[in-house]
Amino acid sequence: MAETEFAARGVRIGRWLRSMTRAGQVRIRGGRLELLTSLGQEIDSAPVQHVHASRPWFVGPRRALASVNGTHYLLTLGGASAAPGDGGPPPPGRFLEALRTARSNAAKSREWS
């Protein structure tokens, strides 16, 4: 079983104005990004090399945009448990950093193959 590199629960996952789930999960594990419902059913997944994610200024401080298999998702990460002064980056920042790290790890493993 691959080690989970990033996991967030209680994530609102939407396709712009349409909410897919209010308490979903985002996981990066084994070189794949997985978007899951609160019950663990897969909404979408893709290898991290095929995922584009960003945090544009117009989406707000707790949100990130992710393009998975050509579908654009709005992810609202972090709630009351994510304190702004906890010393780390805000939850969207942690997500984007984990995605970058997983991408570089996947590229390194391809080089060694």
Q: How would you describe the overall organization of this protein?
A:
The protein is α+β, with helices and mostly antiparallel strands and 113 residues long. The chain has one domain (4-78, 89-112): PH-domain like. The protein has one helix and seven strands; from the N terminus they run E-E-E-E-E-E-E-H. It has one helix spanning 91-112, and strands at residues 4-15, 18-29, 32-36, 42-47, 51-54, 63-68, 71-76. Strand 3 (32-36) and strand 4 form a beta hairpin. The longest helix is centred in the last third of the chain and has 22 residues, at 91-112. It starts with a strand and ends with a helix.
The major β-sheet equals: 7 strands, antiparallel
Distance between the termini: 19 Å
Find the CATH topology. Answer: PH-domain like
- The CATH homologous superfamily name equals Pleckstrin-homology domain (PH domain)/Phosphotyrosine-binding domain (PTB)
According to DSSP, the number of beta strands is 7
Q: Provide the CATH top-level class.
A: Mainly Beta
Oligomer: single chain
Percent helix, as a range, is: 10-25%
Structural Rg? 14 Å
Contiguous low-pLDDT stretches (5 residues minimum) are 80-85
Strand content: over 45%
Output the structural class: alpha+beta
What sequence of helices (H) and strands (E) makes up the elements? Answer: EEEEEEEH
